[in-house]
Amino acid sequence: MRKLRGLLAALALLLASSAARADPVPSLWDPALHPDKPDLGALKAIRFLTSDDYPPLDFALADGSLAGFNVEIARAICEQLQLPCTVQARRWDTLVEALETSKGDAMIASMRATPDLRAKLDFTAPYYLTPARFAALKSYPQGEIDAKALREKTVGVIRSSAHERFLGVFLAQAKTRPYEDFVALHKALKAGEIDLAFADGLTLSLWLGGEDAADCCAFRGGPFLQSRYFGAGVSIAVRKDDAALRHALDWALARVWAQGQYTEIYRKYFPVSFY
Q1: Residue 160 located in a structural domain
Q2: What Å distances lie between residue 209 and 20, 69, 137, 158, 206, CA to CA?
Q3: Contact in structure between 249 and 123 (CB atoms under 8 Å)
Q4: If pLDDT is split at 50, 70 and 90, which confidence band does 18 have?
Q5: Nearest CA to 236 among 71, 97, 79?
Q6: Which DSSP letter does residue 161 get?
Q7: How far is the C-alpha of 254 from the C-alpha of 31, rounded, in Å?
Q8: Do 176 and 77 belong together in one domain?
Q9: What is the pLDDT of residue 37?
Q10: Helices then strands, each counted (H, E), the chain
């Protein structure tokens, strides 16, 4: 928890310094730290496991090759470590078993590190977070979104989601209107049936930048990062007995950020930043 609080504090500082930018890219790594390159020992290559049905994180191109944010981050890691690597797609429900049985060395598939998974696997520090965000029609005024701002406002959420629970506890002044899925929520926002939508920032960012939104809407307020509701971020998984690989991946991720590769990859796949 201490490490997570530090990460969130660093993110808050970065966002504050770039508030005027339309596409903030957060740093989850302390720029003041310059750790030595780890001893890779007998490590000769890295076999990454991912899925191929979660665009823009990981997906298959027409020729069968893999692309996506996760895939390019994996390849950037291998560049930093100066190691050959492969990125292999497997069915989502077989990924954990494949890693546990050494069919791969690391899993980079946007799989949340739940307590059950942490009992089986080890994880790097997060390489992206999944904040909750408010979105509204572009005519909605700019400004912070807090309890006062939401008084008498109608906010759409996905029914029974963490976002609905969060509103009920911390922003109960809003009139919450639940929807069964993102399609219905987006349609209601676009049609002006609700004042704001409150949902997963990544999913909202993809919709805001897509054809269906037709440039109707934009984020309002800042990201909500309470880990109890929205998770502690997404990490790369390795086997419990692979501490050396985890250390190497953490070192390489920090280098990918420090040398600007992370920002380039992030903006390529998320032109509407979800932070």
Answers
A1: yes
A2: 19, 16, 13, 20, 5
A3: no
A4: very low
A5: 71
A6: S
A7: 8
A8: no
A9: 82
A10: 11, 13
3-class DSSP string for 168-236 = HHHCCCCEEEEECCHHHHHHHHHCCCCCEEEEEHHHHHHHHCCCCCCCCEEEEEEEECCHHHHCCCECC
Contacts of 82 (CB under 8 A, 6+ apart): none
In-domain check, residue 275 = no
- Summarised one tens digit per residue, pLDDT across range 119-139 is 999 999 999 999 999 999 999
Predicted confidence at residue 27, as pLDDT, reads 83
Regarding whether 118 and 185 lie in a shared domain, the answer is no
> What CATH number does the domain containing 113 carry?
3.40.190.10
The amino acid present at 97, given as its one-letter code, is: E
Cis bond before residue 126 (omega within 30° of 0): no
In terms of residue numbers, what domain contains 225? 132-230
Cβ of 264: how many Cβ atoms within 10 Å? Answer: 13
Residue tagged 């929520």 (tokens):
185
Q: To which residue do tokens 């919450």 refer?
A: 176
Q: Is the pLDDT of residue 14 over 80?
A: no
C-alpha distances (whole Å) from 136 to each of 2, 38, 133, 152, 214 are 34, 46, 10, 15, 13
| Whether the Cβ atoms of residue 269 and residue 68 lie closer than 8 Å to each other | yes
Measure the CA–CA gap between 112 and 110, rounded to whole angstroms. Answer: 6
pLDDT for the residue numbered 21:
44
Q: Cα(148)–Cα(155) distance, rounded to whole angstroms?
A: 14
Tell me the per-residue pLDDT of 168-224, one tens digit each, with 9 for 90 and over: 999 999 999 999 999 999 999 999 999 999 999 999 999 999 999 999 999 999 999
Strands (E), 44-192: 46-50, 53-54, 58-60, 66-67, 85-89, 106-107, 121-123, 132-137, 154-158, 175-179
Name the average pLDDT for the chain. Answer: 91
29 is written with which tokens?
A: 């790594």
**pLDDT reported for residue 36:** 80
pTM of the model: 0.88
